[in-house]
Amino acid sequence: MPGLQLFNIEQRQEPVRVTEYISKIPENSTVFTYDQTIIPIDVSQLHKCANKIGSGSFGKVYSVNIKNPCEMRMAVKRIPFRPDKNSRLSTYFELSTMEMIGTGNTPYIVDYYCSMIDLNTSELCICLELMDTSVAKFYEAMHSLIKLPSKKLDRFVQCCAHNVTRGLYYLESKNIVHRNVKPTNILINKDGEIKLCDFSICGTLTDTQLDFDAVVGTAMYLPPKPEKCAIQGDMWALGISLIEIINGKHPFADYESYGIAFKILEWEPTVPATVSSDTQALILQL
């Protein structure tokens, strides 16, 4: 998100805990535990057989095959490791959150393996569970079918609602708000598992001192009266995402970005009748 201010650089020093945390990120190599096996890994392994599977303003994501000491596939999120305070605070948010909640504690959030700084490319490498695609790409494929069975669409929407809600509930139990729920941050694999990802702008409900100066998130998924850190914002974004999945496009896809904030204020949410009345009622309650 261009122009995002995490805190006022001129008026505030970087929090000590952020400085200490960043200083302890391993460089070029580290170890992690997978399937009860301790696995050493270094940046050279992350370059081998790496295929780019996604990109965004944050950086790029690759699928990587690790063969020693055991064979496994993982996703590697590469983010330019910049020394400015804004980037460092964003790094702190994402890694500290993933270490706390993404280590197999819940089936509704992607697993976190490890992270390290690639000194050769000046990138932060975050190693995560590899999923097959995003829900955004999946619903596009669904709607490309000549005839999309309404019952299958209804079931898929219900599964997305259930899994993301459970993921958000787990975050709330840790006093965390996601703040960037959208179809591109909801992943799915070939087994039909649906999981939440991307914690780079998450917030904490208990520590208001270490936070962004302004409301953050993706504009098209923000509620009419957004708050800096509230679970209601995540629920609204989930509701918008579910309507997007059903329609095959965002409700405001035809509007210019600068007019969305005004459109949301007068918008009356409606859910297409292509899903069951129970699903419609559920979405309208979010």
Notable features of this structure?
single chain; 286 residues; alpha+beta; Phosphorylase Kinase, domain 1; Transferase(Phosphotransferase), domain 1; 3-stranded antiparallel beta sheet; 8 helices
Tell me what the structure shows:
The protein has 286 residues and is α+β, with helices and mostly antiparallel strands. It has two domains: 16-129, Phosphorylase Kinase, domain 1; 133-285, Transferase(Phosphotransferase), domain 1. It is built from eight helices and twelve strands. The chain has helices spanning 16-23, 43-47, 85-101, 135-143, 150-173, 231-247, 260-266, 277-285; strands at residues 29-34, 37-42, 51-56, 59-66, 72-80, 112-118, 123-129, 133-134, 176-177, 186-188, 194-196, 203-204. The strands form four sheets. A five-stranded antiparallel β-sheet has the order 3-4-5-7-6. A three-stranded antiparallel β-sheet has the order 8-10-11. The chain has a two-stranded antiparallel ribbon with strand order 1-2. β10 and β11 form a beta hairpin. The longest helix is centred in the middle third of the chain and has 24 residues, at 150-173. It starts with 15 loop residues before the first helix and ends with a helix. Residues 47-286 form the Protein kinase domain.
Task: Explain briefly what this protein structure is.
It contains 8 helices and 12 strands.
